[in-house]
């Protein structure tokens, strides 16, 4: 398999690639231990990345089907689904070039750990799902930025483009949550920020793109 990861190059600090509001949105940075774990598992990193893109498209499509009376949501989720599927295709192509066989992986505990706190009734249910979407996209964006200095030129260029697109997705999810909520969302954002921080900082036994630190 061609070399996937490389020694860190001279590059801007990860935070320099990210909007300040996105960094403020997350309650913690990705631990160095996760970055080291990712460098030890380049195949799993790309395979699970592909699965994350596919799941993101599926989430957007499910919202399209469920909330047909929300024009702004329909427009944003349609755009997001198309972009996530394009990213999925791009990751699969990169894997093929590198001799990595795409296979099924069990899901990490990350998304389910957030979604178990979703309220049962709409519109609160939808608002929570959108806030969680914002956290997933923001964390993905932050992790791409953390990895870029360690990647070969082609993968680094691809991940740099994803920092921009995932940043837009984070903004869209948060904007929709504010737009569709009957009340201010700050307390729910703070609640999910703490849930997300615990998932990122706590030990995991299996590496995934959104896993915590190695146990």
UniProtKB/TrEMBL annotation:
The protein's superkingdom reads Bacteria
List, alphabetically, the Pfam families matched.
MiaE
Q: Which GO terms describe its molecular function?
A: tRNA 2-(methylsulfanyl)-N(6)-isopentenyladenosine(37) hydroxylase activity
**Any Gene Ontology biological process:** tRNA modification
- Protein name (record): tRNA-(Ms[2]io[6]A)-hydroxylase
Name the species this protein comes from: Halomonas heilongjiangensis
